[in-house]
Amino acid sequence: MSGHSKWSKIRGAKGAADQKRGKIFQKLSKEIYMAAKNSGPDPSSNPSLRLIIEKAKAANMPNDNITRAIKKATSAGEGENYEEITYEGYGPNGVAVLVHALTDNRNRTATNIRVAFNKNGGSLGESGSVSYMFDRKGYIAIEREDLEVDEDTMLMSVLEAGGEELQTSDEVFEIYTDPADFDAVCEALKAEGYVLAEAEVTMVPQTLSAIAADKETQFRTMLEKLEDDDDVSEVFHNADLDEE
Q1: What is this structure's pTM?
Q2: Domains present along the chain, CATH in parentheses
Q3: Three-state secondary structure call for residue 129
Q4: Where is the composition biased (Basic residues) (predicted)?
Q5: What is the pLDDT of residues 139-169, one digit of tens each?
């Protein structure tokens, strides 16, 4: 993981997320819809749905919105035909970018994403062109404030729960897991009394790539355009950026 910390990015994104709450709810509704449609409406037997519901609640999404998205997925004749698509490309200085989209109009989404890349110093690549630079991992963050647990104790808890790696800073413990073990690790840590500040299955860059100072603003604009698109659910990159 090359010492890469997701926590600063997550923390920095909270303020921006508050300003885009309606758009975030719309995207979460799509994800809930897809998880319920693909693997059933019961969170207890559908780990993907359970994880997205927890993510939605962490974003303060109303329960009515969650319930409505699940009902929509299980009501005959009422659902949209969404498909999941991953786009791969490059930002300025060859920074690797992965874009996960959930769309009911492939042409619209592809056009919007291509424009976001091309107008901001980037370019779309072929399937497989950058995905090999990322690992799919379960990610868990536990804040250290008011937590009287040292690194050795936490490491033992992580290993006993089935986690793969622990990274520690003054603010947070960051835990990485195999995606197949993610749900079990989360439950084991919660059973020990830990409060999970963040928990998701994500794409983690294997190494970080430097970006020239005169290209950074352009790259941030590209990321903003991608993340603001209604069809885009997640954007991952390997740029070595200081989070704002």
Answers
A1: 0.78
A2: 6-74 (1.10.10.200), 83-132+206-240 (3.30.70.980), 135-205 (3.30.70.980)
A3: coil
A4: 1-12
A5: 999 999 989 999 999 999 999 999 999 999 9
